[in-house]
């Protein structure tokens, strides 16, 4: 069974419009390997950190309090 963090990563990917292919490339993994990790078939050490850091690089959080409103 996949770890809870994998669901959070997949959800963030969806919300940010980031494909598995793009995330895998950012991490330096093959997309099939990323899929195996996110589906709980592989559990490499450091996978959570690698995925979350890659997501942060690809979809930085916006500070909506300081972003001007679009007219």
Cα distance spanning the termini: 46 Å
Q: Tell me about the largest β-sheet.
A: none
- N-to-C SSE string, H for helix and E for strand: HHHH
The percent range for strand residues is under 5%
**Count of helical stretches:** 4
Describe the structure.
- The structure is a single chain.
- With 71 residues, the protein is mainly α.
- The chain has helices spanning 4-16, 20-27, 31-38, 47-58.
- The N and C termini lie far apart (46 Å).
List the topology elements.
Blueprint (H helix, E strand, L loop, with lengths): L3 H13 L3 H8 L3 H8 L8 H12 L13
Helix pairs in contact: 1-4, 2-3, 2-4
Structural features:
71 residues; mainly alpha
What is the gist of this entry?
Helix content is about 60%, strand content about 0%.
């Amino acid at each position: 069974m996949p770890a809870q963090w994998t669901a959070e990563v997949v959800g963030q990917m969806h919300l940010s419009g980031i494909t598995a292919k793009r995330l895998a490339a950012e991490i330096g993994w093959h997309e099939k390997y990323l899929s195996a990790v996110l589906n709980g078939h592989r559990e490499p050490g450091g996978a959570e950190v690698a995925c979350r850091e890659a997501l942060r690089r690809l979809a930085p959080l916006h500070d909506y309090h300081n972003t001007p409103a679009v007219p």
